[in-house]
Amino acid sequence: MLILVSPAKTLDYENPAPTKDYTVPALLEYSSELIEVCRQLTPADIASLMKVSDKIAGLNAARFESWDAAFTPENAKQAVFAFKGDVYTGLDAETLSVAALHRAQKHLRMLSGLYGLLRPLDLMQAYRLEMGTKLANPKGTNLYQFWGETITNSVNQALAEQGDNIVVNLASNEYFKAVKPKLVDGTIITPVFKDKKAGQYKVISFYAKKARGMMVRYMLDNNVDSIEQLTQFDMAGYYYSEADSTALSPVFLREEQ
């Protein structure tokens, strides 16, 4: 199974990665194109475009300026250890076994506005460029037009290499929109996580993001390779609800926290 997740806004470049192994992103030529576009933006442009504070805008202008296509462990960090945030809290990549990290490299991909599609051990320089950003570029008015079918083609290549034709979509809607489902050479399964609140089960963003990360962890630790195994996910009190599920959208419920 190929697992897709979103990136995170929060990054950690202070703490060293727990492994020296690394790979280089496959779509760096595209990243370089985007960096050239982003370098034309002033901090004020970035603040307006990304709806961020002046401080964050200044930080990202500096990141775009210092970005260097020659990636090394000295100027970059493996993506799965650089990303922080709710999904990555649930995944807790730093404590993965060597075998589970090896499985992640084969079966896990992170969607990215700047890098397109990242493997866990792909080196990544710090950035902020969300997929939904309306960044005018040579290919259109936003990043979905910039990436076109490129990300989908990379997903298909990863699918072919990893052994079956099932994509487990644990990405947000914003990021999964960069994939063209009709062109994916496989079946897309999209798990849904609902927490009980005030007597009703609903998707609560904070909990759902963390649950997505926990499901990635569960799949890597248990070498999950079937839908049946996937529905046995039971971390942090979640349980599979057959009555609420469809073939392509298994639903996991949790009682009120």
Provide structural commentary:
The chain has 257 residues and is of the alpha/beta class. Helix content is 37%, strand content 15%. The protein has 11 helices and 11 strands. A 5-stranded mixed beta sheet has the order 4-3-1-6-7, sandwiched between helices. A 4-stranded mixed beta sheet has the order 9-8-11-10, covered by helices on one side. A two-stranded antiparallel sheet has the order 2-5. Strand 6 (166-170), helix 9 and strand 7 (187-189) form a beta-alpha-beta unit. Helix 2 crosses helix 3. The two termini are 31 Å apart. The relative contact order is 0.17.
Please summarize the sheet with the most strands: 5 strands, mixed
Structural class: alpha/beta
Low-pLDDT sequence parts: none
Question: Which bin fits the share of residues in helices?
Answer: 25-40%
Order of helices and strands, N to C? Answer: EHHHEHHHEEEHHEHEEEHHEE
The total count of strands amounts to 11
What is the topology, as strand order, of the major beta sheet? 4-3-1-6-7
Give average pLDDT, whole number. 96
Radius of gyration: 18 Å
N- to C-terminal separation? 31 Å
Shape estimate = globular
- Percentage of β-strand residues: 15-25%
Quaternary state, please? single chain
Count of discrete alpha- or pi-helical segments spanning 4 or more residues: 11
Total domains: 1
